[in-house]
């Protein structure tokens, strides 16, 4: 007798983020409980599969991004977990990447490069794009700077055509002051922008630096030049959704409050790997720090690379980057520690050695001061590993 729970996954297989969700669900199944999976091959925005209305299942994990999917899910009256930001069925549990953190990572990256002019290129057909736009603009405005916004015509709009959209992008791009740092709502939109830059013979990243979202490795590497991209933790999002659905199918009462999953970080490639800093000595100092932060350098080492006194270096550094050279070194080290905690099984002692901390105790104190939690708690909270 087959007593496996039957679970439908209404998640498209056509993009890297959705495939990451599916990988996280598979990981949960392998670690916990075998499910009978029903996964239709579909594109984003596809109609509900015909079999869903008569399907004898136990639960659903869905990207509810259309009213048709929302209606079909409501009609089934089964335990459902939503993994979309659209919130078309607000009464059900929701697991989603943290779009505020994603936008702030992109803003921080471009601000760190010294840009004074910014843009956001979005797709208003998706709620996650609108959220990223809002938080990116807010992050730029907190630095007393402004951001120009381009909203594409949504692809489901009858007015949409790529030729029309390309002309709108060209018109917007020509009006922007340069150099400019631009965040695109996701990698596909960023690739389109890079195509327009190439057609206009605009230098990337020297005149226009571009950052996408999703870190679709194939798409990013095929872009010209290769695309920098924020990496959401889609795998962990899928894993959390599977855990939540399992609780619901077991009879637990689960609230509809959002569960936000933090991004992994930003993968820096050629499209944004530039310093837009007019102060040549500070640009050289920043470049040296970024190339050597994890090798144990101190501010004294930076001073050997630039013809400035410590007071002049720190004063000009803070004026441009709003932090001291020491803070920049520590920020880059801690960022590297986070990646190693999440992406490897290295011990804390091994990580401390890899990022330039002489003692693991010093790493723990610095990490707690910067992040608000210990390295062990951070790794366990994000990956379940000790």
From TrEMBL:
Example GO molecular function: transcription cis-regulatory region binding
Gene3D superfamilies membership: 3.40.50.2300, Homeodomain-like
Pfam family for this entry, one: PBP1_XylR
Domain of life: Bacteria
Keyword flag DNA-binding: yes
Ranges for domain HTH araC/xylS-type: 283-381
Entry annotated with the keyword Chloroplast: no
Keywords: DNA-binding, Transcription, Transcription regulation
UniProt cross-references to InterPro entries, sorted A to Z: Homeodomain-like_sf (IPR009057), HTH_AraC (IPR018060), HTH_AraC-typ_CS (IPR018062), LacI/GalR-like_sensor (IPR046335), Peripla_BP_I (IPR028082), XylR_PBP1 (IPR054031)
PANTHER family: LACI-RELATED TRANSCRIPTIONAL REPRESSOR (PTHR30146), XYLOSE OPERON REGULATORY PROTEIN (PTHR30146:SF24)
Identification of the protein by name: Xylose operon regulatory protein
Lineage: Bacteria, Pseudomonadati, Planctomycetota, Planctomycetia, Planctomycetales
